[in-house]
Amino acid sequence: MILIGLTGGIGAGKSTVSALLAKHGAVIVDADQIARDIQSPGSPVLAAMAERFGEHIISDVDGSLIRAAVAEIVFNDESALKDLNGIVHPAMQSEIGRQIAAHADTDHLVVLDFPLLGENPREGLSATVVVDIAVEVAVERLVEQRGMDEADAHSRVSSQISREDRLATATHVIDNGGGLAALSDQVDKLWSELVQLS
Fold first, then answer.
1. What is the pTM of this model?
2. What percent of the chain lies above the pLDDT cut of 90?
3. Residue 4 and residue 125 in contact, taking contact as beta carbons nearer than 8 Å
4. What is the longest distance spanned by two Cα atoms in the chain?
5. Is the residue at 118 inside a domain?
6. Are 131 and 14 in contact (CB under 8 A)?
7. Do 96 and 64 fall within a single domain?
């Protein structure tokens, strides 16, 4: 197994790069999807979150997490964000470890798609790929594509580690300042480099 870390700030286009790598044949371990799964209705993680942040973060309709309600609390309160991470991260790391271990004895190229890789470095990676974009462009895309207001987008970006600190962790950088064709060309080149790491 070749284990690769893939990260990037919010709005950088990491999910698009992840999807392009999957087309090449990479196995994707998607930390965002794992976070959603462990916070599903009735889960111990969701119960612990409701205990800390209040029952109003859970939908009366279907028992699902109201992500916007949690975001409103944690993105402007450092101690609340720390508490959230303390609840979610142990369960996440356990499931990430389980999914990676399932490919340990294979020749698969496994990509750990993890937005917080810069904040939470991981041992045993053969490479760390950072999807990079200017902060202003990230904010613009969050407003246009995800419907966030500009202040919220800025708040989300600034709650993560700095662009410079994230880039300092990279063995490979993908510049997503251009269009999809340019991005696709870079991922093709990246793939040919990553498969040589075995």
1. 0.86
2. 72
3. yes
4. 51
5. yes
6. yes
7. yes
